[in-house]
């Protein structure tokens, strides 16, 4: 009886916290990610529709990027059980939707506020780099004119995918 109780106690966290999928991270692109190069921890290239700092779109090959700062959001800030593939009702483009936790909404508001403020100072739109595993999958801009204080009311992140197959693959990678 005692052995059964110890086995049960040792496995209490076995299923709940284990996550076998790729890590999701969000960065302020211009301050935390370096320019495209031949080496670096992150990558971007086909099938991505666009890669940061690359003039020719779609990117002709894979580019690498050095990480220079800490992510503003990680898996701890999102509800990975909410990850789903859908279509944008206006454009029909495939999107991956990821709900933010309460802490994630606060972190996203801080991240977009920083991007808007620094972008306003630089007189250039700044971006949020969305990273899945070691790949930059999107980098939406934060328009400092439209959102001078960032985006405080976001409840989810929507990543535009290159295709339906790409959207399904991103969902699979995030869910594990």
How is this structure best described in words?
The two termini are 35 Å apart. The chain has a single domain, classed as Gyrase A, domain 2 (2-Layer Sandwich), CATH 3.30.1360.200. The protein has 176 residues and is of the alpha+beta class. It is 26% helix and 26% strand.
Short description:
With 176 residues, the chain is α+β, with helices and mostly antiparallel strands.
Per CATH, which architecture?
A: 2-Layer Sandwich
> Which fold name fills CATH's third level, the topology?
Gyrase A, domain 2
State the low-pLDDT regions, or none.
Answer: 1-16
Number of separate domains? 1
Number of helices: 4
The counted number of beta strands is 9
Task: Provide the fold topology.
Elements: H1 2-10, E1 24-28, H2 29-32, E2 42-44, E3 63-65, E4 78-87, E5 94-100, H3 102-122, E6 126-132, E7 135-138, E8 141-142, E9 156-160, H4 164-175
Antiparallel strand pairs: 1-6, 2-3, 4-5, 5-9, 6-7, 6-8
What descriptive keywords fit this protein?
single chain, 176 residues, alpha+beta, Gyrase A, domain 2, 4-stranded antiparallel beta sheet, 3-stranded antiparallel beta sheet, 4 helices, 26% helix, 26% strand, globular, disordered N terminus
């Amino acid at each position: 009886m005692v052995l059964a109780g110890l086995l049960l106690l040792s496995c209490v966290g076995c299923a709940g916290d284990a996550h076998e999928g790729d890590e999701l991270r969000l960065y302020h692109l211009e301050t935390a990610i370096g320019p495209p190069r031949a080496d670096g921890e992150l990558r971007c290239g086909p099938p991505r529709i666009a890669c940061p700092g690359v003039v020719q779109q779609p990117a002709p090959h894979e580019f690498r990027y050095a990480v220079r700062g800490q992510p503003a959001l990680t898996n701890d800030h999102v509800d990975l059980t909410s990850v789903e593939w859908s279509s944008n009702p206006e454009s029909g483009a495939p999107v991956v939707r990821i709900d933010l936790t309460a802490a994630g909404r606060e972190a996203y508001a801080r991240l977009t506020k920083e991007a808007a403020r620094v972008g306003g100072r630089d007189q250039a739109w700044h971006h949020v780099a969305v990273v899945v595993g070691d790949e930059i999958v999107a980098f939406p801009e934060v328009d400092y004119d439209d959102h001078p204080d960032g985006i405080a009311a976001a409840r989810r992140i929507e990543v535009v995918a290159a295709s339906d197959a790409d959207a399904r693959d991103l969902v699979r990678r995030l869910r594990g």
